[in-house]
Amino acid sequence: MGKIIVYEHANFQGMSKEFHTNIANLKDADWNDCISSVRVIGQPWVAYQHADYKGQLLVFEEGDHDFIGKKMNDKISSLQVITEDLHHPQITLYEHADYQGKSRVIREATNLARGHDNDSTSSHKVQKGVWLLCENSDGSGFQYLAREHEHLPNYKAIKFNDKLSFLRPLRPGFGCGC
What we know:
With 178 residues, the protein is an all-beta fold. It has no helices and 15 strands.
């Protein structure tokens, strides 16, 4: 699977700690709300603002992240490793709730804001991979992580109806021997 190394300061400075498995509450490891940079080897990780994988999220794919950004700096309370197979991703988007209306199969990063499907999606089915769904075309705003074999029949459940503008599959890591 790989690992994530977290650092208390930007540019990999200060104390560090390595994680190989999910941690629902960073208070248990004495690392709550103090992470400013990370290094990921292998599969992607998701950092959450609150314990138990809740609140705003930030995805870290394999590589060095010398500053995690102002939005989440010193605000991470849980970490989760992505375990799904990320090769050959596929998601089907539906215009209406309950998988009704026009559908579209997506296999790569797609900016819906540039076409007819901007802000018109109301449900999805993930066939393969893990997808980052974003409210704005630049990846900002509300973000949602759609996992493999997830069927979400109504975006109203996550207050995301007709707001999807950009989505992309998470990339598999190479440092894990995948």
